[in-house]
């Protein structure tokens, strides 16, 4: 995944799949507007999420992301905005 290739819908889909897998919730039950804590996410899982996002996106993600943007919808919107601002030279940092 290259940084420039991420849009809001792609990020949201990835997050829903991640939550379904890691929090053991059926993906159809993940409402993008619902707070992440409602799926059982705590500090440990939030840090795992950030690490997995960094690996997937190939860029640094602030460790407080899940607390600053506490829903799938807000995280997706924020990250998509960040991706648009980031230069896409085709190389990972």
CATH topology: Non-ribosomal Peptide Synthetase Peptidyl Carrier Protein, Chain A
Task: Provide the low-confidence segments as ranges.
Answer: 89-93
Helix proportion: 40-55%
Q: What's the total helix number?
A: 4
CATH architectural designation: Orthogonal Bundle
Overall structural class, as computed from helix and strand content, comes to: mainly alpha
Question: Can you tell me the overall shape?
Answer: globular
User: What is the class in the CATH system?
Assistant: Mainly Alpha
N/C terminus separation:
13 Å
Strand content: under 5%
Structural domain count: 1
What is the string of SSEs from the N terminus onward? HHHH
- Rg over CA atoms, rounded to whole Å, is 13 Å
**Corresponding CATH superfamily:** ACP-like
Largest sheet: none
Q: Average pLDDT value? A: 88
Tally of DSSP β-strands:
0
Keywords for this structure?
single chain, 93 residues, mainly alpha, Non-ribosomal Peptide Synthetase Peptidyl Carrier Protein, Chain A, 4 helices, 52% helix, disordered C terminus
Structure description:
The protein has helices at residues 8-22, 43-57, 65-68, 72-85. The model is unreliable at 89-93 (pLDDT under 50). Helix 1 crosses helix 4 (72-85). The relative contact order is 0.22. It has one domain (3-85): Non-ribosomal Peptide Synthetase Peptidyl Carrier Protein, Chain A (Orthogonal Bundle). It is globular and about 30 Å long. The protein is mainly alpha-helical.
């Amino acid at each position: 995944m290259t940084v420039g290739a991420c849009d809001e819908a792609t990020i949201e889909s990835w997050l829903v799949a991640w939550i379904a897998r890691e929090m053991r919730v059926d993906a159809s039950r993940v409402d993008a507007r619902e707070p992440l804590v409602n799926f059982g996410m705590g500090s440990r899982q939030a840090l795992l999420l950030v690490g997995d996002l960094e690996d997937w996106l190939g860029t640094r993600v602030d460790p407080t992301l899940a607390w600053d943007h506490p829903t799938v919808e807000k995280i997706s919107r924020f990250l998509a905005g960040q991706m648009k601002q980031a230069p896409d030279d085709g190389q990972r940092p």
